[in-house]
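Following up on my earlier thread - several people asked me to post the actual chain instead of describing it. Fair enough. Here it is, all 184 residues.
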Amino acid sequence: MTIRPIQLLGSPALRAQCEPVSNVRSPAVRVVADDLQETFRDLRSRHGYGRGLSAPQIGAPIRIVYIEVDEPLLLINPSVVDIGKRDVHVWDDCFSIPGLLVRVQRANRIELEYEDLSGKPRQLEADGSLAELLQHEIEHLDGVLIVDHPVGLDPFCVREEWNKHYADTGKYSEPFDRDAGPVL
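Reply from S.P.:
Thanks for posting it. Predicted structure:
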């Protein structure tokens, strides 16, 4: 396992459309999976936060996501197959854009399909912060970053200012009906 450098905003690697993994059981896939886990854990221990990392963030243009919320989870070729009717606004952050939070809109509930390291097809239903995290990481696989879809009049905030002005209200809005829109 290797701790890899994180690709930062401006790196072409973050804008690449990642290739699907065709041979889930290949040694190269295992190397990327192990490096994602090692790099993520190093970042979280140094920064004190973080819940996930995607392969393009370590320079690997393949469709793999690693998250640690309650337990570690590796998703190969993840795809969102359904979203609920309610959204949330979230102050989102990203290891590839250090120090910046961006208010974005995400589905409050999603269903996705993926493969595990043995190649077995899996399904996952997620809501709330887990749904938001998975959408963030899967967007990386399509070259989409949080700065690409900000919402609201003042959607960008450096972490220090966010801690002063917004931390008391939290990162997440209350869920709202997508068709009705949020109350700002």
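Residues 68 and 145 are 20 Å apart (CA to CA). That should answer part of your original question.
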